[in-house]
Amino acid sequence: MLRNLRSVAAASLAVGCIPFAMSFGSARADATTHRAKVVEPVTTTTPSTAAKPTTTTAAPRPPLVRMLPFKGTFRVSATWGSATGPTHPTPAIDFVMPIGTPVYATATGSVDFTSTDPRNCNPLTHIPPGGTYEQAIQWCVDHGMVGTRIRIRHDDGTYTMYVHLSAIRSGISAKPMSRVIAGELIGWSGDSGIATGPHLHFSKTDAVGKTYDPVLLRACWDNAIHDFVNLKALVGTMVRNDGYGCLTTPKK
Predict the structure, then answer these.
(1) Are the C-beta atoms of residues 121 and 140 closer than 8 Å to each other?
(2) Domain-located, residue 103
(3) Maximum Cα–Cα distance for the chain, whole Å?
(4) What span, in angstroms and rounded, lies between the C-alpha atoms of 73 and 144?
(5) Structurally, how many domains does the chain consist of?
(6) Which domain holds residue 122?
């Protein structure tokens, strides 16, 4: 997969993407605090017995849990940090899968960005004589080969990116913003953009493209919920998800 993208991160962000062999920390729990509801003190002849004001606060919103973005069993080829060296300078996960594998939304939200560019730019074929792999990546960036991608803004204010797609499902758009639910088909995997082979590149980001460790990805099989954690260490691991029907069943 891609290596040493720090030198091209700024250029990647300029075209609305995260560094590619880069786009979905733990999901935040946003506490919503309502305006305090004050009970007026009761006036009596003995001030010390007056009722004290009381404040009511809404319960915190539960953390957003993200599902795996596919059905089936696929190998994690790259994550980030020491697990895969310089492949991804920031948190991201690559799942090796054939072109045309269905890709699903990992959580409910609204599509706020898409790009459609079926071209592949394999850095291995663009290294200049005497040059470096990083120069080849920069060549791809400079030529605008950003690939076909989808970004979803989730209800907790975070985003997930789905990169290197071969196609986006009809009806999925950012203008107007399509509303999607966890487990809804959004497109198909491919090798568009800066990629050395077919795979799905997934990351969690904020509004300006900074990526975070997703911390946990949930899967369903045997009619139960299973959680993948310590995602950074999953390189070389086969991960499985049979679907999204167990979302309401107890965790096994």
Answers:
(1) yes
(2) yes
(3) 94
(4) 32
(5) 1
(6) 6-12+67-241
Tell me the CA distances in angstroms from 113 to 101, 181, 207, 231, one per residue in order: 21, 16, 11, 25
Task: Please choose, from the candidates 190, 109, 183, the residue with its C-alpha nearest in 3D space to the C-alpha of residue 149.
Answer: 190
195 occurs within a structural domain: yes
Q: Determine the Cα–Cα distance for residues 168 and 117; give it in Å rounded to an integer.
A: 11
The CATH number assigned to the domain holding 85 equals 2.70.70.10
Place of tokens 């506490």: 31
DSSP, collapsed to helix, strand or coil, labels residue 16 as coil
For residues 62 and 214, is the Cβ–Cβ distance under 8 A? Answer: no
**Which amino acid appears at position 157 of this protein?**
G
User: Which residue in this structure is represented by tokens 């167990």?
Assistant: 246
By the 8 A CB rule, do 149 and 114 touch? yes
The pTM of this model reads: 0.74
Query: What tokens does 205 get?
Result: 């980001």
Backbone angles phi, psi at 234, to 5 degrees: -85, 5
pLDDT tens per residue across span 12-41: 433 333 333 333 333 333 333 333 333 333
Residue 44 located in a structural domain:
no
Which two structure tokens, joined as six digits, stand for 108? Answer: 């409910």
